[in-house]
Design brief:
single chain; about 100 residues; mainly alpha; two-stranded parallel sheet; 5 helices; about 50% helix
Length: about 100
């Protein structure tokens, strides 16, 4: 059997991915937490990126700032549509950490 994990928002393929998965983890963090995360990662080596970001990506910051109004409602609708899936929604890092420690 094929098993995989897909990380990312990628709106254009979101429904296709949700329709084919068995479990969804939605990190539904507040905007300020997401912006803080980008600042904290800046200048650090990351295993998921072949480069080190040393400056702020203005376009990405705008995406984060607009996410709650523009993208989040679409994700919530898809999660409702596929509510029979295993869906975990975390509102903050502590919730996600607690979940990971429990498994």
């Amino acid at each position: 059997t094929d098993e995989y994990i897909i990380v990312g928002n990628y709106a254009s393929t979101m429904e296709m991915r949700i329709s084919r998965c068995d479990t969804v983890f939605f990190l539904d963090y507040p905007t300020d937490i997401c912006l803080d995360g980008t600042r904290e990662r800046r200048g650090k080596e990351r295993s998921d990126m072949p480069w080190i970001e040393n400056s702020e990506d203005e376009e990405f910051v705008e995406f984060i700032k607009n996410y709650a109004q523009q993208s989040r409602p679409k994700v919530i609708e898809l999660l409702k549509k596929y509510s029979y899936k295993n869906i975990f929604i975390f509102s903050n890092r502590s919730e996600a950490d607690e979940f990971l420690m429990s498994i």
